[in-house]
Amino acid sequence: MDEMTQVRELRAGAPAPDRGRLAAGRTRLTETARAGGRHQVLWRRREFVIVAVVAAVTAVAVTVTVLLSGTAPGSRKVEPASTPNVSLKGIRAAQLLERAAELVEKEPDSAVPRADQWIYTLQMSESPDPGLVRVLGKSAIEQPSWIRYDGSAMASRNPVPKGQKSKLSITKMHLENGGEGDDRSPRELYRVLDALPAGGRQTLTFLREKNAIADGQGATQAESDYTEISVLLTADVMPSKGLASLYRALATLPGGTVADHLVKDASGRRVIALSYAREDNPKSGESMADQWLLDPQTYRIVGMRMVQDGKVVGGNAIAARAVVDKAGERG
Predict the structure, then answer these.
(1) Which of 182, 75, 69 is nearest to 118 (CA)?
(2) What percent of the chain shows pLDDT beyond 90?
(3) Domains of the chain by residue range
(4) Over the stretch 83-126, which tens digit does the pLDDT of each residue have?
(5) Where is the composition biased (Basic and acidic residues) (predicted)?
(6) Hey, how many other C-beta atoms are within 10 angstroms of the C-beta on 241?
(7) CA 275, CA 261: separation in Å to the nearest integer?
């Protein structure tokens, strides 16, 4: 079965998920979340850098490394890790990504989740809404969420003031086979990733032929390639070889830069910052960039944020992720 062809056919004519289209909806996303609306995703998730401002809050504080091998079949549990001494002076984006690809492709994969299992994710806001912080009485805005592997349901906890207990809200969904428009289930994305060829150029050719994400009007080939890759990089369940393929494909694209030192994410963890320049409004001269956050030990992605003129303006850090048997469990 050719999953990518099915995805392309099911979403023919849909607008490309560029940030310009998403930016206008940031305020609506915030207000919807405060009103208890469901957490939206895009193919599964182009809004990765935006949704943190609508975070649900829990009393959990963790600093972890994401997506290490699980301790039991079907489990992908996160474990604490110390920060290694990493030299980033003078390293180019392509060099970093090749180093990352070589490391992650050697990692054994845990068992693929069952259709009825849930992916638990705890995210922390990289740039929390000050108003939300005041209302909740907390400086660290955390967002626990769950999605069934088959995409048939999602769950989250709504923001509540400090000292109150948040209620688990479960929403029935139909993310597979185009049932919710642009949304896709973790299972569908896993199948796409599992089918990627090993080489970077071959992966680009594969993605261009399938063209699952419609090209934006006037977008260059490199911009379209980046959009395809960036969406897949946010998948909830990531096979090691599939991630290595994406890294190698990304390494062929221009515009990437690596910070020459480790930076701190929202959880206080020191991470590698890999940036790709973007620009929403050329007339204003605003400098925009996507910044991918990589764990310096595993080279797995542990967050993404949007940077404007050198300042973090949105995004989140993944503090924990695990496969669990029911919504509300944390692994």
Answers:
(1) 75
(2) 49
(3) 3-324
(4) 567 789 999 999 999 999 999 999 999 899 999 999 999 999 88
(5) 1-11
(6) 19
(7) 13
- For helices 221-232 and 186-194, give the axis angle rounded to 10 degrees: 120
The string of pLDDT tens digits covering residues 213-271 is 777 778 899 999 999 999 999 999 999 999 999 999 999 999 999 999 999 999 899 99
What's the token pair of residue 321? Answer: 């992720």
Element counts in the chain: helices (H) and strands (E): 9, 10
How many C-beta atoms lie closer than 10 Å to residue 129's C-beta? 20
The full 3-state SS of the chain, as one line of letters, equals CCHHHHHHHHCCCCCCCCHHHHHCCHHHHHHHHHCCCCCCCCCCCHHHHCHHHHCCCCCCCCCCECCCCCCCCCCCCCECCCCCCCCCCCCCHHHHHHHHHHHHCCCCCCCCCCCCCEEEEEEEECCCCHHHHHHHCCCCCEEEEEEECCCCEEEEECCCCCCCCCCEEEEECCCHHHCCCCCCCHHHHHHHHHCCCCCHHHHHHHHHHHCCCCCCCCCCHHHHHHHHHHHHCCCCCCCHHHHHHHHHHHHCCCCEEECCCCEECCCCCEEEEEEEEECCCCCCCCCEEEEEEECCCCCCEEEEEEEECCEEEEEEEEEEEEEECCCCCCC
pTM: 0.75
Helices (H), 74-174: 93-104, 130-136
Look up residue 40 and give its two tokens. 């939206």
